[in-house]
Amino acid sequence: MAKLIDGKAISAQLKDELKEKVAQLSGMGKEITLAVIQVGADPASSVYVRNKKNACAYIGIESLSYELAEETSQEELLALIVRLNQNEKVNGILVQLPLPGHIDEDVIIKAIAPEKDVDGFHPQSVGAMSIGQKGFLSCTPAGVIELLKRSGIEIEGKECVVVGRSNIVGKPMAMLLLRENATVTVTHSRTKNLKEVTKRADILIAALGKPKFIKEDFVKEGAVVIDVGIHRQENGKLCGDVDFDNVADKVSAITPVPGGVGPMTIAMLMKNCVQSV
Ligand code: GUN
């Protein structure tokens, strides 16, 4: 059985470190405020938003909640972002994705002031990350790097294969692994002979968004497997992009779902908030 990479424990440690830092900042008269915007009431988004607000409360960050109706227009949402950009009390702005279909996510993300873009989704943040300049790092990929480092897994020189090329996980994940001096391959739905490629991985990152897609024949013996996916199964239980039970005996370390990457995403959001003051 592989070693379990405990994202819950590692994120708890990270949050405790941040809590101390926030207390120190508060002692210096610096308070942190995060504006959290949700449009509509998608149940999964509501859970994420609640978890983010709870993390803020635990660490000592004030969160301002904007729960907007599904029918909110793009102009109304933009007007709110402009107000929050101008509000000196607000350090970070988070717009929970996905947005309803009538709102253009790219336009919204671009409207957030880069110095308040604690999700790290603004093109300026993504560009800075890609060329190693200062800026907010996208929370999920940054959480994966932190998880590997805090588990004592070396990245430098390793063959890393990312499955999935989304803007919020796959692409920034590849850039961050590269920054850590890994040899990086990005695969996607049009990749030929996917299994042949994923089997080369010392570290395999699954972020394709298909439940239990990665089976034992996709992984090399002794590989490290990081599962970014999260899906609700028909039996009500959560699972990842990796078929955990099928893969666990073959690999050296693996993240569970839930309790792997998910809590790290929130911890890294908190880290970005602390960095925003
Ligand atoms: N939707 C899925 N993941 C995320 C995330 O990290 N941030 C935001 N804002 N929305 C998301």
General form: globular
CATH architecture of the largest domain: 3-Layer(aba) Sandwich
Number of strands: 11
Ligand kinds: guanine
Regions with pLDDT < 50 over 5+ consecutive residues?
Answer: none
Count of separate DSSP helical elements: 10
For the biggest β-sheet, the strand order reads 1-11-8-7-5-6
Q: First CA to last CA: what distance?
A: 43 Å
Superfamily at the CATH H level of the largest domain?
NAD(P)-binding Rossmann-like Domain
The CATH first-level class of the largest domain comes to Alpha Beta
The average pLDDT value, as a whole number, equals: 98
Which fold name is given in CATH as the topology of the largest domain? Rossmann fold
Oligomer: single chain
Helicity level = 40-55%
Over the alpha carbons, how many angstroms does the gyration radius reach? 19 Å
What this model shows, in words?
- The longest helix has 21 residues.
- The protein folds into two domains: 87 residues, Leucine Dehydrogenase, chain A, domain 1 (Rossmann fold, 3-Layer(aba) Sandwich), CATH 3.40.50.10860; 124 residues, Rossmann fold (3-Layer(aba) Sandwich), CATH 3.40.50.720.
- Strand 9 and strand 10 form a beta hairpin.
- The chain starts with a strand and ends with a helix.
- Helix 1 runs parallel beside helix 10 and helix 6 packs across helix 7.
- It is built from ten helices and eleven strands.
- It is of the alpha/beta class.
- The chain has a six-stranded parallel beta sheet with strand order 1-11-8-7-5-6. A three-stranded parallel beta sheet has the order 3-2-4, with helices on both faces. Strands 9-10 form a two-stranded antiparallel ribbon.
- Bound molecules: guanine.
- Guanine binds next to strand 4 and helix 6.
